[in-house]
Task: structure prediction
Amino acid sequence: MKKTLYLKLIIAYLIFGVFGLIVVVTFMQQMTENRLRQNKAEELYRVATVLSEEDALRLYKNETSLASVKERLDSYARMLDARLQILNPSGLVVVDSAFPVDVDNPSTVEGFDMTMLNGSFFSVGNFYGQFKEDWLSVAAPVTMGYAVRGYVLVHYRASALRSTTNHLLDIDYILLLVLFLLSLIILIFFTELIYMPLRRIIHATEEYAAGNLRYPMPVESDDEIGYLAASLAYMAQELAKGEDNQKHIVANVSHDFRSPLTSINGYLTAMQDGTIPPEQYPKYLDIVLNETDRLIKLTNNLLTLNNLNTQGMILEKSVFDINAVIRRVVSTFEGSCREKRIAMELSLTGENLPVKADLTRIQQVLYNLIDNAIKFSHHNSVIKLETREKYSKVFVSVKDSGIGIPKESVPLVFNRFYKSDISRGKDKKGTGLGLSITKEIIRAHGENINVISTEGVGTEFIFSLPLADESAE
Ligand code: ATP
Ligand code: MG
Result:
């Protein structure tokens, strides 16, 4: 793509120049010549008329002498740089500005016939063979009592006319050249405002394509080009972010897989080489099993998250009673609650609270939230579960009075692999993926999840679900 745009513009520019020249040379020349000829003819005709109505008429009436008429014709001929004649209708030359009067031996214009002019008051040619080159001739009749007695003719050299035309055309050519040069300004504008920025943008995209996503976009302007550049820069920035994210996730996954694998490997090696005696096997097998549990959970969570992302999550929505689901999920935690002597307090609105959502996914959400609440609660504490109906939505809250989340960590808890420092000691098995899965599910429903937490006091997660319109079901 290198130089084609520029080349195309140059070609367009040259075409413009060439066509301009052709137009000026053909049309302008024709038009100018016609116009000048017409003007000259009119001017000569006026002179011819004056002479025919005054001098020629008086001559025919014998009121003036041939010599004085000849003098008048001569002076007009000099003034107009023309040749003037008075002819009889038969073609007999009465007076001619080019020759002295010769009464005894008058010359004749052979074939002279004014009807041949066909209504036009001028003609261009050799005028019945009188001239060797082309002349512009006009004729004004001399009339006496309705009869044409003769003609006053004024001839003007066509070549003189042409040289005037050429002179005027020279001005046109100069103007055209000036215009052509001025239009170079467009070329300069194009180069500076479009071509150069485009090249810079292309260079930047090449850098991006080569993987250098942090290459600074060298174009900043307030027009469409600037917008294009900004969009590309934004795209590169987002790609870079995605790349960072990807690296971060891979690093986290590797780390989370490595630690349990290292400990499993360590214990099994110790068993094999006898460092751990057989009577202690049960204890260490328990630890190994725990670690494998954690690996299975991590793998499952990663798979869930991946599916949520790639398919944009396909929800199987149905109408179900959220209160009943909460009771069922809570019952699965009876064992761990008993262990930590934690009491679950349910304050559920209504007998039956129907929502329209994906049952399995919402079960998972509840499971993740209650699991966290128990994990991060102190012994002998209370966890409150509440459902409320508001604005045709159902709000579900899971509230504990556990360790809480440090203020600076609150915005991060929904991030993948995020675990707050204070929680690490309490929960070694956590993958840090539970809440990000939860958030993805709620968001797929077009709903929201929020967290309110105070370190050392407790945490509350509230999410919304659409209330099912029972009458519609
Ligand atoms: P997993 O859910 O895979 O077992 P996890 O519980 O550590 O791992 P998340 O559920 O995503 O991961 O929670 C992320 C972090 O948010 C937790 O590690 C913890 O630091 C904090 N957190 C979540 N819920 C609570 C809570 N109820 N009280 C205090 N901290 C919490
Ligand atoms: Mg969790």
